[in-house]
Amino acid sequence: MRTWANRPREAAALLNPALMAVISANAAMQYERQSSQAMPWHLTFLVAPLVLHRGTREALPRDTRTHLSTWITENPVIRAGFPQRAQALTEHVREGLRFGMANRILTVTSDGALHGTLAATAKPIKTGDATQIIRASGLIGKWFTRADQPATLFALFGVAP
C-alpha cells in the first residue's frame, strides 16, 4: 500500500479504509439479516469490485429476485473486467477489514464468519456516490445469500479466493 501522502486524491477519497469497512459491514449485516448466518469473510473481496465500479453498480438489479448467474450472463463485459478489478482492490479491502475490526464495526469469528455492526446513531450520507455504494453493498450482501456455496460465487465471477 502507498502511504496517504503518495496516494492520488481521488483514490484516497474513494478507497479509504473507513468506506471500505462500511461497505463490508453493510454487506455482512444484510447477509446475516437475510440468512440468519454471518457472511463468510472472504466474500467481502467480491463486494468491493461490484459496488465501487460505477458501471457495474449501475447495472445491478433493483432487488435480489434476479438470479446472479442470469445477471452475469446478461452482463458479460462486467464479468470480463471483474478479475482485474478484484485484484486491484485486494489490498484496499484488507485495509478496510483491519480498520473495521479496529473500530469495532466488523468482527470475524473463529470459523471465518464476518459480522457487521453499523451504529444506529451514525449519521447517514444523503447524497453522492457514497450513498449508492453503501446501498449497493447491502443488495450484494442479500444477493450472496442465494448462492449454495461461497465457492459458487467466486466461480461465477471468474476469480479464486
Description:
The protein is mostly helical and 161 residues long. The chain is 61% helix and 6% strand. The protein is built from 8 helices and 3 strands. The protein has helices at 9-14, 17-35, 44-52, 54-59, 68-74, 76-102, 129-144, 150-157, and strands spanning 39-40, 106-108, 113-116. The protein has a 3-stranded antiparallel sheet with strand order 1-3-2. A hairpin with a 4-residue loop joins strand 2 (106-108) and strand 3. Helix 2 packs across helix 3 (44-52) and helix 3 crosses helix 7 (129-144). The longest helix has 27 residues, at 76-102. The two termini are 20 Å apart.
What is the overall number of helices?
A: 8
CA-atom Rg in angstroms = 15 Å
Instruction: Based on Cα principal axes, name the global outline.
Output: globular
What does the oligomeric state look like here? Answer: single chain
Distance, first to last CA? 20 Å
Order of helices and strands: HHEHHHHEEHH
- Beta-strand percentage range: 5-15%
Spatially, the strands of the biggest sheet line up as 1-3-2
Largest sheet entry: 3 strands, antiparallel
Indicate the low-confidence ranges by residue numbers. Answer: none
- Residue share in helix: 55-70%
Mean pLDDT: 89
Based on DSSP secondary structure assignment, what is the total number of beta strands? 3
